[in-house]
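This section describes the prediction task in plain terms. A model, or a person checking by hand, is given the sequence of a single protein chain and must write out its three-dimensional structure as a string of tokens. No templates, partner chains or ligands are provided. The sample shown here is typical of the held-out split.
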Amino acid sequence: MLVPSQKFVEPEMAESTTEEHRRSVVPIASPTIDVVVPVHNEGAGLAQSIERLHEYLSAGFPFSWRITIADNASTDATLSIARALSQRLANVRVLHLEQKGRGLALRTAWTHNDAAVVAYMDVDLSTGLDALLPLVAPLVSGHSDIAIGSRLSAGANVARGPKREVISRIYNLILRLVFSTRIRDAQCGFKAVRSDVAARLLPAVEDNAWFFDSELLLIAEHNGLRVHEVPVDWVDDPDSRVDVGRTAIEDLKGVLRLSVRFVVGRGQINLAAGTRRSVRDDMGRRFVPFALVGLTSTLISLLVYVWLRSRLSPQWSVMLALGITSIANSWAHRRWTLGRRGRRGLGRHLTLLIIVGLATVIASVVVLTVVGAAGGGLPAELASLAVVWSLAAVVRFAVISRVLDTPEPELHDDHRN
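The expected answer:
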């Protein structure tokens, strides 16, 4: 992992500060919330944004707080302005890094942080600040592990150009297709995480740039952490310095890297006491994904069977039709019906489901042989397959129920630094 050159610039009172203001500046030790604002060459609007954020938090925010300005390798007046703000405003500090990278700035500011909850927001304050309390409250209460602002959730109020809107929706659609994530908006610059959870997650996150928070979220979700989404009011900053094209390419590279990592089983981390115990499920909630997966795979198998039936024997046709869908069917049931990711129990789960699949193939071949001997045609074959596959679905559902009632094996840290 890259170790940045860093320096905390603690607030010192400027000579011109009045005695009254000196008495009012009482640094908060171990605040509940540390709001990190990562900046790079943002000297033009930094003071206005930090003053606005400081005023909002000072006007009755219910938790103790601190603002950390995380300057990463600025070459303009950003650092000097940040230092002046830390001298003038209570509970504002500055972190300076010699290396550039938004993810690196967040990683450094969040690591070994004495706040209970660490958060971040973009310096342009595009997200309405009224969403900050709903963002952090579920983390302070312990209900959730990570909280994110979402511009794509119902109830969000967003104003931005069509180019960014299209790119954002396509990117999040890619994440949903590749990772089956339930997160709607992985890129919104408005997130928070419990510090104890961050300590476990951060060593597993490899990116130090713009894919950092997407990777953090996907690893968290992959490990069963609870992600809370807050619909936000969000107004696009027309002066944004983000290179959208380059960022999109880097994000896609990150998607490919992380997907490979998950496939080879290196996505699990040791959450220790932070692991949330699963409740016993009576399968009511699981029945819908089970039925959808089953109906989809059955329809595909029937179509393939009918197409092959005019070219091959019934026995070969059914073996190939079920063979084409069996692996995908087993994976889909594990991912959506069981809700399992990673390597935990992978061999046991897939073995049980594949055994059921092989038994279905054998039963189908036997039944088709009997139907053929009796002189039945295609309608009789399809009817017999419908009966066999329905019975197989009952067995598969019983197997999945049994798997869900079996405790998971102990989780070990698969991450390699």
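For orientation: Confidence is low (pLDDT under 50) at residues 1-5, 10-26, 409-417.
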